Amino acid sequence: MTFLVRAATDADLVAVGELHHRSRLSAYADLIPRDELTARPASALVAWWTERWRYEQDTHRMTVATSGHDIVGFSYAGATLAPDTAELCAIHVDPTLQGRGLGTRLMDAALAWFAADAHWQRAELWVLSANVSARRFYERLGWATDGGHREGPIGAAVAPQVRYSIGLARPADGRARLGEGA
Predict the structure, then answer these.
(1) For 110-154, what is each residue's pLDDT tens digit?
(2) How many other C-beta atoms are found inside a 10 Å radius of the C-beta of residue 118?
(3) What secondary structure, in 3-state letters, does 154-172 show?
(4) CA distance 182 to 61
(5) What's the distance, CA 103 to chain centroid?
(6) Does 175 have pLDDT greater than 50?
(7) What is the 3-state secondary structure (H, E, C) of 34-47?
(8) Over the stretch 23-33, which tens digit does the pLDDT of each residue have?
(9) Which entry of 17, 29, 52, 83 is 20 to 30 Å from 91 by CA?
(10) Distance, first Cα to last Cα, the chain
(11) 31-88 pLDDT tens trace
(12) How does 158-181 read in b/e, with b if 16+ C-beta sit within 10 Å?
């Protein structure tokens, strides 16, 4: 199976919302009560991504992975309130295709975008504390916990989250490269 990674377009948002819904149902099945996961249908996530993209497309980047005409993964990234810090806001891969390198390709695209912007010195992301699989994925790619903790809603459920970060190093030659966890 061949995959293409490219910048998202408005036409991709329905597929992104539907994929996000499938991914959440799979990834959070043992972490969040099923009623909470199913309370928000795929159509609500389509509407949410459409609205969010409308307001953030100038400051954020959505990247999709495709197989043929199908969206099989996506990442969403942008700025944080800290002027030197970027955030990986979301990364999702079709549950039937996990383990094939799509998540890594989407992560690489987000990190390359971060590193190309000279004012960002580090990147961060938030993950459910209990999502061991996702945490291992991030750690394999060089991210490290940095002590940040918060609780965030998924439906009416409140889920503890932990923050990971990574440095975006720029050597003397000016060429961006990824650094160690910050």
Answers:
(1) 999 998 888 899 999 999 999 999 999 999 999 999 999 999 888
(2) 10
(3) ECCEEEEEEEEEEEEECCC
(4) 22
(5) 9
(6) no
(7) HHHHHHCCHHHHHH
(8) 999 999 999 99
(9) 83
(10) 35
(11) 999 888 888 899 999 999 999 999 999 999 999 999 999 999 999 999 998 989 999 9
(12) ebebbbbbbbbeeeeeeebebbee
Pair of tokens at residue 56: 């953030």
Q: What is the 8-class DSSP label of residue 130?
A: T
Q: Is 157 exposed, middle or buried (0-12, 13-18, 19+ CB in 10 A)?
A: middle
Specify the pLDDT at position 156.
80
Residue 8 is classified by DSSP as -
Q: Are 162 and 129 in contact (CB under 8 A)?
A: yes
Distance CA(36)–CA(21), nearest Å, equals 12
Q: Which residues touch 60 (CB under 8 Å, ≥6 apart)?
A: 53, 76, 77, 78, 79, 89
Domains, the chain, in order of start with CATH, read 4-178 (3.40.630.30)
Structure tokens at 14: 């329905």
Q: Please name the helix (run of DSSP H) or strand (run of DSSP E) that holds residue 98, with its range, or none.
A: none
Look up tokens 């394999």; give the residue: 140
| Separation CA 91–CA 158 (nearest Å) | 20
Number of H helices, E strands in the chain: 5, 8
